[in-house]
Amino acid sequence: MLALIRDAIVSYIRPFSKNRGRIFKKIRLDDCFVPSKHKALHKDLLRSRDQVFAHTDIDAHDPTLARFPVKSGYIYPIAFRNLSVKSFVDKLPEISALIQEVHNAINAEKQIIESQWLDTVKMVK
């Protein structure tokens, strides 16, 4: 389940992160497409993507080093904070609504741009 949630979050956030393209060197979808009511969730998903899923930020994993004696000396295991899948599962309806509303906002903007372009083409003829 975590793999599906992780991949959905990484895929959703990808256009909002700083990407490098061949023609346009920096490509990033503007946050204006994120509805105000979902801004906090969007930021939470962005942080989770950046610190936990796509990168391994030490603060997000909060490692703890232990020292245990064994016959040959000591071992030093490291424990990491567990990522709570339940916190994301509980938010799935809100995450789904966020993704759908962003999708709708992008499509609305695309239709405006296409309409303006068609009007320009008609004027040239």
Describe what you observe in this structure:
- With 125 residues, the protein is mainly alpha-helical.
- The chain has one domain (2-124).
- The chain has helices at 2-13, 39-53, 58-61, 85-90, 92-124, and strands at 64-65, 68-70, 73-75, 78-79.
- It has a two-stranded antiparallel sheet. The chain has a two-stranded antiparallel sheet with strand order 2-3.
- It is elongated, with a radius of gyration of 22 Å.
- The mean pLDDT is 86.
Number of structural units classed as domains: 1
Q: Helix fraction? A: 55-70%
Q: What are the low-pLDDT stretches, counting only 5+ consecutive residues below 50?
A: none
Number of helices: 5
Structural class: mainly alpha
The proportion of strand residues reads: 5-15%
First-last Cα distance? 55 Å
Q: Judging from the principal axes of the Cα atoms, what is the shape?
A: elongated
Task: Report the count of strand segments.
Answer: 4
- From N to C, what is the helix and strand string? HHHEEEEHH
State the major sheet. Answer: 2 strands, antiparallel
Radius of gyration: 22 Å
* Average predicted confidence as pLDDT: 86
Please state how the strands of the largest beta sheet are arranged side by side: 1-4
